[in-house]
Amino acid sequence: MDDFRVPCMSRLDNAAIIMPPVTNDDATSLFRLSVDMDEEVDRERLQAALDRVVSRFPYLAVELRRGFFWYKFAPASQPILVEDDPQSPCLGFDPNRPGTCMFRVRHKGRRIACEMSHLAADGKGGMRFMKTLVAEYCRLSGHPAEERHPDVYDLDRKPVPEEYEDAYVRHYKPGLPHPVMGRPAFRVPGAFLPRGDYRVTTGRLRLADALAAARARNATLMELLGAVYVEGLQQIWLESAPEDRRCTEIAVEIPIDMRRYYKTETNRNFTLFSIVGEDMRLGARSYDSILERLKYRFRLENDEATMARHITRNAHGMLHPLVRAIPLPLKDIGARILFSVLGEKYVSGIVTNLGAVDLPRGVAEHVVRFELVQPPSTATKVNLAIHSYGDEFIVTVCSLLEDRRMEDLVFGRLSSLGLEASTECNL
After folding, report:
1. Where are the domains positioned within the chain?
2. Most confidently predicted of 26-30, 133-137, 161-165, 169-173
3. Is 120 helix (H, G, I), strand (E, B) or coil?
């Protein structure tokens, strides 16, 4: 197969440009996708699969470089080798460190894991890379895919520029009003885990039971779990010391894949966010009340016209002539301020929904589990991720805190809804 190339230097997309100055070894920007195979993984075979897949996704096999005006991506200068998988995922990664590739592949026992930086891709792009890697590993193991799959790329097909376009800029609509900002949000208080630890608690439920519980409430799984998380934040707010309750807004960020509204083949970032929550000045609400309010607010916000305002706000700054002319060191200062003012300050936590994960026949039979871990955040500290695979619905609580109250609240509420989860934790 040809060693495909993209332009030697490419600028970061609109979502990624703010990340380098606010990303470090603790807030790494890494999200993780992993599979457990039905047998021990052969490391040499996995490396051979990775080598082929890297050549098909050259726009992800990149490292960060500083320019005079902008950060840029350059082809990875070091070989991309399979690493050992440690106990805590997604830590010890700083994209600003010279020679750091924007993803890494890890292995332990039956597990294959890919940790992808949000500087390079969002969940959809990461999924396509991961599914292609797993499919190629299975092919080399004598288990080729028995059907074509839209997320499993033909490794002999040359990548097209649309795969690494900045879709925010292409779909930018000048002149739209910017979204209205909320109020500063409550943050879960508490002591951090020792540095180098990131607790991942995974609960597995029967998908049929979870769907039945959601349908009984005229809700989606996203809405059902979003309300569970909001209620958990509400309970922690109620139990917190007065000095930790000065911010009375509980605001939960829910990523939205913009590919549902705009046609694009990009594997870079093309995700925006809907924010839902509660004002604790109005008093505590029951779970059912939170769910009903969240359903309508989320559906009201989650349409193309509303989300287009976020594209306009974000891309406008990147395209403005005065902003373009500012040297990078000053842009870094501005990015840190902007991230605090428009990003972290207004969010209590994040709920990510990867949706239903599927793999082609011939591959799926050899993948026992598929898992998602959210990027560690020193601001929101404890976040939620959900997805389904096969007949399982998976709920994952990702935390940098010693306090396990959120895990107890999430799985306790699910139990009260008749959804008993078998849980496991890495720490």
Report:
1. 10-170, 199-425
2. 133-137
3. coil
Name the CATH superfamily, with its identifier, for domain 199-425: Nonribosomal peptide synthetase, condensation domain (3.30.559.30)
SS3 content of the chain, % helix, strand, coil (to 5): 35, 25, 40
The pLDDT tens digits for 61-72 are: 999 998 877 889
CB 221 within 8 A of CB 256: no
Q: What is the DSSP letter of 75?
A: E
Helix axes 287-301, 304-319, angle to 10 degrees: 60
Can you tell me the distance from the alpha carbon of 387 to that of 371, in angstroms, rounded to the nearest whole number? Answer: 8
CA distance 168 to 369: 33
- Give the chain's count of helices (H) and strands (E): 10, 15
Strand partners, 356: 388
The CATH number, out of the four listed (3.40.50.300, 3.30.559.10, 3.40.50.150, 2.120.10.90), of the domain defined by the range 10-170: 3.30.559.10
Is 199-425 the same fold as 10-170?
Answer: yes
The predicted model scores a pTM of 0.94
Q: How far apart are CA 141 and CA 39, in angstroms?
A: 11
